[in-house]
Amino acid sequence: MARTPVFSRRRRSEQIDALDRFPISDSEVHVLAVDDSLVDRTVIERLLRLTACRVTAVDSGIRALQYLGLQDESNSQVGFDGLKVDMIITDYCMPGMTGYELLKKIKESSTLREIPVVIMSSENVVARIDRCLEEGAEDFIVKPVKLSDVKRLREYMVGDEKIGSERSGNNKRKLREPCDEASSSPSILSPAPSSDSSPPPSDSVQSITPSSSEPSSPTSTPQSDDSK
After folding, report:
1. Does one domain contain both 151 and 211?
2. What's the whole-model pTM score?
3. Which of 49, 175, 183, 217 is packed most tightly, with the most Cβ within 10 A?
4. Could you say which DSSP state residue 88 is in?
């Protein structure tokens, strides 16, 4: 009984290895996976291959920049093997260069900034998530990465305008705040015309009051003269 979990785990690994040997079609997307952990890198690589993705895995942000040829701007979105990179998924905490620093390097490049970048982390820190999303990350995944997460990532690699618009609304959360303010402003401005229309009657009433008070003052002065 004690050997059963080991046997089942080994069997599952063999099944996944068999899936890794499936032929790769030309329509498959190419993902660059960056993680310093061999275990996590292997997991994400296999999950991506299960969703029909071609995967190139490197162990550091520096290796990722070298593969992308970021120092040579002529190698736009093309790795050393000549494959176009459709998406980059990187771990956040890595020695030498963090995933956030790699994200900034990519978004500062005129030739690589359009590549979608997804950040992974084992820590669910809100400030870290917001910082990555504001810098241009498409998504932030908290480890362990699941197959459902990887399937959802394929939306970022599909050139569909509808998906792109929904993606920008869902992930770039900081962009929602100005939209909410803009949507609330019309409701504030809408009653404004009614309030502007109400003051004119009040002004007309005020204009009548002084006119009625002016005749009263001269009538009072002649009475004082008669009394004299």
Report:
1. no
2. 0.59
3. 49
4. E
**Residues 105/137, Cβ–Cβ less than 8 Å:** no
Q: What is the sign, positive or negative, of the torsion defined by CA atoms of 31, 32, 38, 40? A: negative
Q: Which residues make Cβ contacts (< 8 Å) with residue 120, sequence separation at least 6?
A: 35, 40, 44, 89, 90, 91, 92, 99, 140, 141, 142, 143, 145
Residue 175 lies in a domain: no
User: What is the spatial distance between Cα 1 and Cα 96, in angstroms, rounded to a whole number?
Assistant: 44
Q: Which structural domain, as residue segments, surrounds residue 209?
A: 191-227
Is 177 a member of any domain? no
At 39, the amino acid letter reads V
Helix (H) or strand (E) holding 119: strand 117-121
On whether residue 173 sits in a domain, the answer given is no
Model pLDDT, residue 158: 56
- Name the token pair of 117: 């970048």
Domain count along the chain: 2
* pLDDT tens digits for range 7-19: 445 554 554 454 4
Residues 6+ apart with CB under 8 A from 98: 61, 92
